Amino acid sequence: MNNTPVLKISLVILLFLPFIFCNAQRCPQPTDSLFLSLYKSKAQKKVEDFGFMLSVIADKTTDPLDATTAINNAVSLFISEDATVEISGVRDTSYRNKFKIREYLKRVKAIKYDKVEIEWSSIQYVSDLRLGDDGNFHGAISFEQKFKATKEGFIISNWVKKNTLVVVKPQSLPIDGKTFICWEVFLSDIEVSQTLKK
Amino acid sequence: MKCIFKLLYILSIIFFFTSCENRKIEYFKLNIISSEPLGQLKENDPLPTHLISLFNYYQDTSCIEKVFVPKITLERIDISPLKKEDFEIPLTSLNQFRKSYDLLSGANLIEDYDENISKLITPKILIEPNNGTNLNLVPNKHQHVILVSLDELNTDTINSIRKRIGAGLCSGNLNGNVTILFVRGLKDSISADTAIVKFYSWKNEKQRNNSEIDSTLQSLEHQYPNDYRFTVERLKLRNEGGQIKESDEYLLLLAVEKAIKEGKAKDLLAIINNMNLPKKTKEKVAQTITKNPPPGPPINPDKAVSFRKLPIEGKLSTIADASYTPKDRKQFKDITLEYFESQNSQVTIASNDSSMITSVNTINDYLDKLRFSKNYKIKVVLVENGSASKISSIRLIETY
C-alpha cells in the first residue's frame, strides 16, 4: 500500500510530539549535567551553615529572639520536624540519645554553662547523592563536632564524628506568578559515628 | 503487518491525547469580587501581571502531583443590579477537545496557561464605572473570604495570597471554593483599633468555623503588620486546652516581637497573663520582654553609615560575613530591608551561569538565612525596581 511510509512517519511524529512539548522547566532537573554537582555542593554548604547556626544558638551572648530565629532557620534546613539528632555523652562516651531536631536545638539553647562553643569541621561526603526508590536523591555527609563548655572555671569537652543524611527532593516554587517544580536539598537524621576524643 | 501499523497508529493517537504526565487537574471556584473599578485600566488593555497571576493555576509543595485550576467568576458589588460573569482562560482547540473528554493532563494545561495567560485582556466588568450602589462589605454568603485592600493590590500581596490558596487547596481546608474581595480603604480609613472592634462583632455575629476566622485574621494581620493583637487572636484560636502546639509557638514570638517594636510590650504581657497558658510560657514571655527594650538608635552609627554606602551586592555579602557579630548582622539586615518594597519582595537564586533558578525566597527570610550563615559571596544579576525606586525583586548568584 502506497500510504505505508506516510503512516510510519506520522506514527513516529505522533509518538515523539508529547515529549517535545512536555519539557519547559527553568529549574535544574536530574537530566541536567550540573544537577548532581550543584546539589552536592549545596548540601555541603547547608551542613556547614547548620553547624554555624548551632554555634550561634549555643552562644550565651546571642539575643534570645535571634536564637529563636536561628532555631527556626536551622529547622527549615531539615526535611521535616521529625528529623532526629543523636548525641553522645560528654562523660560517658558510650551513652547515646536521640532528639527531634527542634527539641535538640532548644536543649542546645538552654545548656546551663557560662560559655559554650560548638565547632564543626572536616565536612565531607561519605556516600554520594544517588537516586532512591522514592524518586528523591539521597546521600550522606560526615563532619567532626568539637564541643567545649565552661562553668565556674571547669571545662568539659568532647570531639565526635557524626554523619548526616541529605535528601534532594522536588518542590513547587512560585516564580513570577507561575509555579515551577524545582529541587531542593534538605538535611535529615544526624547520627554519631565515632567518639574521637574526650 | 498493515494491521499492526494501523493498530499502532490508533494507539499513538490515543497516547497523543492522553500523554505527558500524570499530574491531576482539580478545578476549584475562585470568586473575585471588587467594590470598585480596578485602577486605570481600559477595556481590552493587557491585564496587569498580579491579576494574571491570580487567574493562573496553583500548586503547592505538599501535593505536587496536583494542579489546581480556578473556575473564575468576576463580580462587582458596586453596580446595581449586581454584576457577575464567568471568566475563562483560553485553551488551544486541541486542549479544549481534550478537556471536554476528560483527557486533559496537568502538563497539557500548564503549557497552554504558560503560553497564553500573559495575553489576557481586561474584561469590561472590571472597569465599568460605579453607579453609586451601597456596598455590603461583609460577604456572609461566601466561605473562605480573603480580603484584599485595593491600596495594596500588588505582586507581593497576590503572591502571598497564591501561597495561602495553594496550601489551603492541598490540605482540603478550602473545600474547592475561594472568594477574594477587593475593597479600598481597609487600611487607610479604618484604624487598627476600629478593625479589631469590627472583627469581634463580625466573629460574634453568628457561629463561625475556625478556618474562616483564621483566614480573616490572616488578612487583618497582612493589613496591619505591626499590630500584635491580630496575631494574639490567632494564637487564642489555636490555643486549645491551655497548651500551645509547638508548631504555633512562632505566633507567640511574632506577637512579642511586634509588641516590643511598637512599644506595647506591657499591654501584650497583660493579655498573655490573662490567657490560659502554662506558667512557664508566661514567664518566658515576661523574660523576653524585659530583656528586649524597644529598639533605639543603631548601636554603632559609624558602622551603619558605612554599611549604607555599600551597593546592594556588598550589603548582602556583608550580612553573610560571619566575622561580624550577630548584633551587627541583625542591624545590617534591618537597614537592607529598607531598600526593598516589602519584606515579601522576591529573591531568586540562580545557578552560577545564571541560566537556571535554584531557589526562591522572600527578602526577609533570605536575609535571615544570610545572617545565620557562614560566608556567602553574593553577585547580583538583576534588580527590578518597584514604586519609589525600592527593589521589588532581585536575582542573585551565591558562591561559597
Structure, explained:
The complex is a heterodimer of chains A (198) and B (400). Chain A has helices at residues 4-22, 35-58, 64-76, 101-109; strands at 84-88, 96-100, 115-131, 137-151, 154-175, 178-197. In chain A, strand 3 (115-131) and strand 4 form a beta hairpin. In chain A, the strands form two sheets. A four-stranded antiparallel β-sheet of chain A has the order 3-4-5-6, with helices on one face. In chain A, strands 1-2 form a two-stranded antiparallel ribbon. Chain A is α+β, with helices and mostly antiparallel strands and 198 residues long. In chain A, 33% of the residues lie in helices and 42% in strands. Chain A contains four helices and six strands. The longest helix of chain A has 24 residues, at 35-58. Chain A is elongated, with a radius of gyration of 23 Å. In chain A, helix 2 (35-58) runs antiparallel to helix 3 (64-76) and helix 3 runs antiparallel to helix 4. Chain B has 400 residues and is of the alpha/beta class. Helices cover 43% and strands 17% of the residues of chain B. Chain B has 15 helices and nine strands. In chain B, the strands form two sheets. In chain B, strands 3-2-1-5-4 form a five-stranded mixed β-sheet. In chain B, strand 2 and strand 3 form a beta hairpin. Mean pLDDT of chain B is 79; it is low at 134-141. Classes of the chains: A alpha+beta (198), B alpha/beta (400). Chains A and B meet through helix 1, helix 2, helix 3, strand 5 and strand 6 of A and helix 1, helix 2, helix 4, helix 5 and helix 9 of B.
